[in-house]
Specification:
Layout lengths: L4 H7 L6 H14 L11 E6 H5 L9 E14 L5 H10 L7 H16 L4 E2 L4 E3 L8 E14 L7 E9 L5 E4 L1 H14 L4 H18 L9 H9 L10 H14 L25 H16 L4
Parallel strand pairs: 2-5
Antiparallel strand pairs: 1-2, 3-4, 4-5, 5-6, 6-7
Helix pairs in contact: 1-7, 7-8
Length: 298
Amino acid sequence: MAISEQQLETWSHQGSQVQSASTYQTIRNALNDPSAPYYQRTYRIFLQGSYGNDTNIYADSDVDVVMCLTSIYYGDTTHLSVEDKARYDAGTSSGGITFADFKAEVLAWLKHKFGSDVKAGKKAIFVPGNGSRRDADVLVCVAQKVFLTYPAYGDPTYIEGITFWTADGGKVVNYPKQHLSNCTSLNGSTSGRFKPSIRVIKNMRNAMIDRGLIKAGLAPSYFLEGMLSNVPTQNFVASRQLTFENYMNWLQTAATGDMTCANGIHYLLRDGHSVCWNVEDYNTFRARAIQFWDSPDH
């Protein structure tokens, strides 16, 4: 039996924004304090994740804040010709600070502002909440530029993203600006139905975890957003039930090898890549979602 339209409509609603907005402002103000050791450098602070993308549901807790150093960047020259690469090498020099040094400064400053319970995790720095502030994850990163051309005359062309290293030394490159922009564009081209559909599938995933159909962590929200971003816009219709059936039917026969994350740059499905969804987990999620949809007991 399909999940009722009423239940899906409830799941489509956005979670609380007030406390998350207050949390972001508090963290932003602390990071942007003129007394911070890195204050004279150029950096950008912004929201990412569900709160940044307006796809948060009532169960979402952590606020994801990005602290990106832009006064230096890491360059990817793999797409340049031999001549362009030579010009790049001749025209660039090493920056005055490393990622590790910048992260250490931010970590020390956040501990100074919020106390010793601030901890560096595998990817982000965790800032615990209090009575009026949610938990926050601060992702420290550096600008990344993937150069496409580096001509003798005129400006180089490049794709801009972020890069950071995990605690175990793994390098991660991602494109949060493109992710947010593409999701906003898709929401507009679907008459405002794309982001509510993400909230529906996230709530459904949580209900499936509670039911024991899937394990926690099998279907991260980031990959669910990427999955739905590949679905043709005409499948998002006024009926929540029909929208779910439309995109599940489309995904059943989609060329999964060509699907991308919502940023439009990384592939969505690849094994062994930190920025891609494990193929087995993707297939398991789709199968269990259909099983849950058809279950008589919701």
